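go over both lines:
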Amino acid sequence: MRRNVTSSLRRRKAAPMTRFDRLPPELRGWLQRAMLSWSVKSAERIWAKTMRKHQGNVQAALVELDRLERAHMKRDIERIWGSDHPGLVDARGLQKAA
């Protein structure tokens, strides 16, 4: 079977799963458990930034990623469902911190 190699579409440098497989194991694990669907490109960028910020401390970087994800979710919850959504209010009725 012949491949179509004359397409005008841009070629990707690496298949998305190959790029995912090249991520650090800790970041891959975090992405697998993440509540939002992060792109590999975004995850790479944020990981590099948090690793610099925390001088290579993986656990601190993972905590930072969790905090960033909660902040994104909080913003989306408020925008979509309103500020009284249970995802924003804890058991005492107080607004949860991001």
Notes: The radius of gyration is 18 Å. Residues 51 and 94 are 32 Å apart (CA to CA).
